[in-house]
C-alpha cells in the first residue's frame, strides 16, 4: 500500500481513489505509454513517451539530447509527475452534464534520476522489448555500445502514487430519467490488429505476436511421415507461388490462379485476415522429406458451439497429387477435429464439376449429403453448385482405420 500524501489525496470523488501497489502496477504494466510532466527554466513541459516498470521503479525512454534528460543530469535529479490512463469506455447520459468516461489511471510524483550504468540500461532495454512480446528480447539484436550511448532513461522510484478509476453505468438526475434520449456505456479497449511484416522479412510471425485463442481457431503445427502442417504466414508467399504455378492446380478453386507473386500475397493476406477475424484456420503444407512448401489447407466454418468444422481452401503442388501427402494431411486434420477439439461433424465442399475432388473426399470415408445450388461464385463470374460431404464422429473410427491402412500400404495414395 502506498502512503497517502497531500498531493495524492483527492479533493473530490475520493471513493474513486486507491493506493494498492498491485493495482497501480497492473495499470502501469498494461499501458504502453505515459505522459511525463516537469518544468524546465520555469516553464511546464509534458513528454509523451514509452515506459516500463521493473519492481518498484518506472523507467521512461528518451534520447540523450531531450530536455528532461538534460535537466536531470544534476545531482538533485528532476522533479516529475508521471501519468498513465487506460480509457475503458464512454459513458453517455441523457444530460450533457453527466456524460463521463470509465477509466483507470495512475499518477506518480517524485524525483527522477538519470540512468548512467550500462548494465542498468541494458536491463531496461530488455524489459521494454519484453513488454512488446514475451520472448522478443531473444529474437532481436541487443543495442550496441554506440546505441546505448545515444539512448538513455529516467528512473522514477514509485513512492508517492495514487490510482483513480471509474467503472459502471450512467449517473443521472432523477428528473432526466424519462427523457427520450439513448443513454448507456460504449466500451473501449485496445485490440491488436493483424501484424504487418516489413519488406524482406522471411521468418514466420513469432508466437508471442499471436493472440491466445480457442484451440478451435488455433493452427497448431502437426506432422507425419509425408507432410508437415504449420501456421500459414506471409513468409510462405514466394514458396507457395513457385509450388503452384501449374494452371491445373487452380481449375476448380474459388480464387483465380495468381499471375505473379503479389497476387499470391493477396491470397495469403486474405486467409490471414480471415483467421484474424476467427473465420478460418490456415496451414501451409510442407513435404516432410524435403521441407519444401507444397500447398495450403484450412479449417473454415468453425462452429465451436455446434462442434462442427469444414476442411477446405486446399491447393497442392501437382506432383503431390495421389500421394500420401493428401491422405496424411486429412488424417491429421480429422484427428485434431475429432480427438482434440471434440468435433462431432466435419464437412467438405467442392465444385460439382470437380470429379477428382469428389472421389478424393469419398476415399476419405465422407458421405455425400447433397448439392447446394448457386452456392458460390466462380472466378469467371458463373455460379457454382457445390457438393457437400460430411463425416460424423460415429463414422470416424472406421474412416481412421482405413486412412492408416492406406498410409501403411507400399504406394499410399490420397
TrEMBL record:
Pfam families: Acetyltransf_3, Pyridox_ox_2. Residues 227-394 form the N-acetyltransferase domain. Its EC number is 2.3.1.-. One of its GO terms (molecular function) is acyltransferase activity. Keywords: Acyltransferase, Transferase. This is Bifunctional pyridoxamine 5'-phosphate oxidase family protein/GNAT family N-acetyltransferase. It comes from Phytohabitans kaempferiae.
Amino acid at each position: 500500500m502506498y502512503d497517502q500524501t497531500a498531493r495524492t489525496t483527492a479533493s473530490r470523488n475520493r471513493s474513486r481513489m486507491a493506493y494498492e501497489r498491485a493495482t497501480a502496477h497492473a495499470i502501469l504494466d498494461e499501458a504502453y505509454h505515459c505522459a511525463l510532466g516537469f518544468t524546465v527554466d520555469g516553464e511546464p513541459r509534458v513528454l509523451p513517451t514509452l515506459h516500463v516498470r521493473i519492481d518498484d521503479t518506472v523507467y521512461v525512454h528518451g534520447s540523450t539530447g531531450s530536455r528532461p534528460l538534460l535537466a536531470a543530469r544534476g545531482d538533485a535529479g528532476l522533479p516529475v509527475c508521471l501519468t498513465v490512463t487506460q480509457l475503458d469506455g464512454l459513458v453517455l447520459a441523457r444530460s450533457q452534464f453527466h456524460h463521463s468516461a470509465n477509466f483507470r489511471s495512475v499518477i506518480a510524483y517524485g524525483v527522477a534520476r538519470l540512468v548512467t550504468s550500462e548494465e542498468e540500461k541494458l536491463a531496461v532495454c530488455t524489459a521494454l522489448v519484453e513488454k512488446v512480446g514475451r520472448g522478443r528480447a531473444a529474437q532481436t539484436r541487443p543495442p550496441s555500445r554506440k546505441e546505448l550511448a545515444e539512448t538513455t532513461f529516467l528512473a522514477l522510484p514509485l513512492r508517492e502514487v495514487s490510482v483513480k478509476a471509474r467503472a459502471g453505468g450512467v449517473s443521472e438526475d432523477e428528473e432526466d430519467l424519462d427523457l427520450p434520449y439513448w443513454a448507456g456505456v460504449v466500451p473501449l479497449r485496445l485490440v491488436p490488429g493483424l501484424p504487418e511484416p516489413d519488406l524482406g522479412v522471411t521468418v514466420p510471425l513469432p508466437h508471442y505476436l499471436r493472440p491466445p485463442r480457442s484451440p478451435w481457431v488455433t493452427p497448431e503445427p502437426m506432422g507425419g511421415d509425408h507432410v508437415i502442417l504449420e501456421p500459414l504466414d506471409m513468409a510462405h508467399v514466394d514458396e507457395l507461388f513457385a509450388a503452384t504455378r501449374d494452371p491445373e492446380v487452380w481449375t476448380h478453386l474459388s480464387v483465380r490462379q495468381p499471375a505473379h507473386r503479389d497476387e499470391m500475397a493477396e491470397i495469403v493476406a486474405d486467409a490471414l485476415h480471415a483467421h484474424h477475424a476467427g473465420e478460418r484456420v490456415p496451414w501451409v503444407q510442407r513435404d516432410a522429406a524435403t521441407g519444401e512448401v507444397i500447398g495450403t489447407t484450412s479449417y473454415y466454418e468453425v462452429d465451436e458451439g455446434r462442434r462442427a468444422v469444414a476442411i477446405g481452401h486446399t491447393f497442392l503442388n501437382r506432383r503431390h497429387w495421389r500421394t500420401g501427402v493428401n491422405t496424411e494431411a486429412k488424417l491429421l486434420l480429422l484427428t485434431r477435429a475429432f480427438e482434440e477439439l471434440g468435433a462431432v461433424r466435419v464437412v467438405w465442399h467442392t465444385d460439382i464439376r470437380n470429379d477428382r475432388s469428389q472421389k478424393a473426399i469419398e476415399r476419405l470415408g465422407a458421405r455425400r449429403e447433397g448439392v447446394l445450388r448457386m452456392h458460390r461464385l466462380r472466378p469467371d463470374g458463373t455460379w457454382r453448385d457445390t457438393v457437400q460431404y460430411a463425416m460424423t464422429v460415429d463414422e470416424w473410427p472406421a474412416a481412421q482405420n482405413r486412412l492408416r491402412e492406406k498410409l501403411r500400404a507400399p504406394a499410399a495414395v490420397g
